Amino acid sequence: MQIRLATPQDSEQLYLLNEKFNGKDETTLDNIKESLSKNHQEIVVVAEEESILVGFVCVQMKKSFCYNDYMPEITEVFVLPEYRRRKIASEMILFAETYCKQNYSLHKFELLTGNKNLEAQALYHTLGYRNEGELHLSKRGRLS
After folding, report:
1. 143 in a domain, yes or no?
2. What is the pLDDT of residues 22-44, one digit of tens each?
3. What are the C-alpha distances in Å from 6 to residues 108, 112, 121, 139?
């Protein structure tokens, strides 16, 4: 298993993985290619086995004038079901953390996950993430 940063050449496989994770029509192949080429606010880490991508982690590099340092936020973690329980998610998160520490001055890491996703929460707790009691709210920006 190789854990590494994603490249634009990974776009097609990431598109298919994202369809399994977020459903169809959330993004396009062209958007993924462009994001991997030009979006310097996001770090995408992938797990690859025998030239097949089996998971990804997305990290948003948040920066505010309120803090001297970046606050990387892990926003997406996905591993194909048949590859789960092999510590792949942990390895991708640890890779992302190490990359961020080596390349940015950091305030703290943040992680976004579902309230009812207890299995993922257990994993994140083993990696040192704790619930800080904040409430995450969202609002769709596009008109339907």
Report:
1. no
2. 989 889 999 999 999 999 999 99
3. 23, 20, 25, 29
Provide the 10 A C-beta neighbour count for residue 22: 12
Domain count, the chain: 1
How many residues belong to the chain? 144
Please check whether residue 59 lies inside any domain of the structure.
yes
Structural domain range at position 41: 2-126
What are the structure tokens assigned to 135, written together? 């409430």
Contact by Cβ (8 Å): 73, 104: no
Does 98 map to a domain? Answer: yes
b (16+ CB within 10 A) / e for 48-86: beeeebbbbbbbbbeeeeeeeebbbebebbbbbeeeeee
CATH assignment at residue 118:
3.40.630.30
Instruction: Supply the mean pLDDT for the chain.
Output: 91
Reported pTM: 0.88
Would the pLDDT of 93 be above 60? yes
Residue 56 lies in a domain: yes
